[in-house]
Amino acid sequence: MPIPRRVSTRLNPPIDPQEVDWVGRVVGLFGGCYCPPHSGHYYSVVNSIQKFNLTVVVVQVYGRRTPEEARHGVPESESILIWQDWGRKIFSKYGCLVIAHGWDNLSYISSDVQYVFDFTFAESDEERDQLQKKSPQFSSMFMRHVPRDHISRLVFVRGGDGLSATKFTHCLMDSDEKCIQYVPEDFSDQYRKDYINFLRKRYGKYLK
Question: What is the H or E stretch that residue 6 is in?
Fold first, then answer.
């Protein structure tokens, strides 16, 4: 059974960043492989929306183009589609616009924004410490037109009871019923089951 977004995409197209009024927006950038997206990712975004009063979230997916090349067997294009679908839920429930695409230039973000938070979520304290040592100029590489004092880079340890894409993938490979915890509770039980079945059916032989 296909994931429900296959039905809803035509009626609810992805947000076109060129059509967004960026004036006064508080923007959150979230980059990652998201292969595959899971509830730990979802609620990291949701919690950041609520804590920092974000009005636009940009999810930048950097993965691989084919299942064979992808880190866990789910290609970048699929992760983007899933995030576009999840973005509709986030907008309807939390009122925040969500834009999802590949690792592109962010020149479409207007210099009229109020603020930009560049979020990085680590899986452990050790990874957080390593990421914090990296150059703070990361965001300005993509938004040189936005004043530097309008940008902050924040590194947090991901919440979600230790959920990770690796553990989710292993759960999918083992046909474990506990996989349901990796799908956000904001969705219906049927959607959550469909999501798991979709990943297993579409990418089962590539999961790793």
Answer: helix 5-8
23-162 is classed CATH 3.40.50.620: yes
What is the number of residues in the chain? 208
CA distances from 117 to 112, 132, 153, 161, 175 (A): 15, 15, 6, 24, 38
Q: Indicate the pTM of the whole model.
A: 0.87
Q: What is the pLDDT of residues 5-28, one digit of tens each?
A: 443 343 456 788 888 999 999 999
For residue 206, give both structure tokens: 């590539």
Nearest to 203 by CA among 99, 12, 63, 62: 63
Mean pLDDT for 74-91 is: 93
Residue 100 φ/ψ, nearest 5 degrees: -130, 130
**Residue among 129, 153, 157 at smallest CA distance from 140:** 153
Please tell me the distance from the alpha carbon of residue 137 to that of residue 148, in angstroms, as a whole number. Answer: 9
Residues 3 and 38: their CA atoms lie apart, in Å, by 14
- Tell me the C-alpha to C-alpha distance, in Å, between residue 64 and each of 86, 148, 163, 199: 20, 31, 22, 16
Name the DSSP letter for residue 201: H
List pLDDT tens digits, range 118-144: 888 776 778 777 777 765 555 555 677
Domain locations in the chain as residue ranges: 23-162
Region 157-173 average pLDDT: 80
Strand order in the sheet with 97-102: 97-102, 56-61, 26-32, 115-122, 151-157
> Can you give the pLDDT at residue 95?
94
